[in-house]
Design brief:
globular, binds glutamic acid, three-stranded antiparallel β-sheet, five-stranded parallel β-sheet, 12 strands
Length: 327
């Protein structure tokens, strides 16, 4: 299946995607990412995919996915593939129904001898984490690694464990369209990472790489909280023989206290924003935050396509949302 699907990615069509987790109502930051990703895809004459990242069965709900679709439509962001109706050649577009594809990718990775079962609890990991940490990430100390170096023997575990992927002490360098060139050392900054959890849940890193490749995604636009994940994802692409998409990591929108917006920032949730603004007013304000308009003048996403460029977007890690937007 992976091999069949692999042929699709050679298509010359630019493809962007928006990949929300349907765990609540979107906020201004989510819709900012959606707008920029949509504008970039449209400017390239490409397609735009709505992928539902519902890997977390406890928190993901269909009603949230439907609400996301409604909010995107309200703003004027139409998608060509995906969504809850599973439109398009790469269906299903909800991660909860793509288990067979992740299993096949995992199998392929297991053949490399780079994976091993891990039985560490969170407390074990915290107690033995490697001394180098970045961005508050916990770097796995390697307790369950069966030997100092791969290839590791394939063992059948007698108890449920996670599957972890060894990372070498080498650098991944990538050039982000917004943030510029980054070099990440896999061992120091990421550490061996989980592909499948002990409870059977697929890790985001594996799912996103498989989905982007099999859906033919050429450009990933998302918040810069995922910048470091990009190195892990490029490493996975290399191991699986997938071409890596280009990446554009956007500054995170923050409230006036400097905190990154979350689903708890009710005043900037789509529910409140739709009460206070028309779609044109909200689009104009988002375009202003992206540096595309000198003033937050009302407009439609379609009217912004011609003037869209990543060059106008701030390279700072965050943008403070003006108080008047929070109502
Ligand atoms: N599902 C992730 C989120 O909602 C986005 C992942 C991605 O764009 O790679 O934050």
């Amino acid at each position: 299946m992976l091999n069949n699907a692999l042929t699709k990615e050679n298509s010359p069509i630019a493809k962007g995607r928006f990949a929300p987790s349907p765990t609540g109502r979107m906020h201004l930051g989510n819709i900012f990412t959606a707008l920029i990703s949509w504008l970039s895809a449209r400017k390239q004459g490409g397609k735009w995919i709505l992928r539902i990242e519902d890997l977390d069965p406890q928190r993901s709900k269909t009603c949230h996915a439907l609400q996301i679709e409604d909010d995107l439509a309200w703003l004027g962001l139409d998608f060509d593939e995906g969504g809850t109706a599973d439109i398009g050649p790469c269906a299903p577009y909800s991660q909860s129904r793509r288990n067979h594809l992740y299993a096949e990718a995992l199998e392929r990775l297991e053949h490399t001898g780079l994976t091993y079962p891990c039985f560490c609890t969170r407390a074990d990991i915290m107690a033995t984490q490697a001394p180098h940490q970045s961005d508050g990430r916990v770097i796995y100390g390697g307790t369950c690694r069966p030997a100092p170096q791969p290839p590791f023997p394939r063992t059948t575990a007698d108890r449920p464990g996670a599957t972890r992927l060894y990372v070498p002490d080498s650098d991944i360098t990538f050039t982000d369209t917004v943030c510029g060139t980054h070099t990440v050392n896999l061992a120091r900054h990421c550490g061996d990472f989980v592909l499948r959890r002990a409870d059977g849940a697929w890790a985001y890193q594996l799912a996103v790489v498989v989905d982007d490749a099999l859906m033919g995604v050429t450009e990933v636009v998302r918040g810069n909280d995922l910048l470091l994940s990009t190195a892990q994802q490029i490493y996975l692409c290399n191991l699986l023989g997938f071409p890596a998409p280009s990446h554009a990591h956007l500054p995170l929108l923050c409230n006036s206290a400097g905190q990154r917006l979350s689903k708890r920032d009710a005043s900037l949730s789509m529910e409140q924003l739709r009460r206070r603004f028309t779609p044109r007013e909200l689009t104009g304000r988002l375009a202003h935050l992206a540096g595309l308009l000198p003033h937050p003048e009302p407009c439609t996403p379609a009217e912004l396509v011609d003037l869209f460029s990543f060059a106008s977007i701030s390279r700072q890690p965050s943008i403070i949302v003006p108080d008047e937007m929070a109502g």
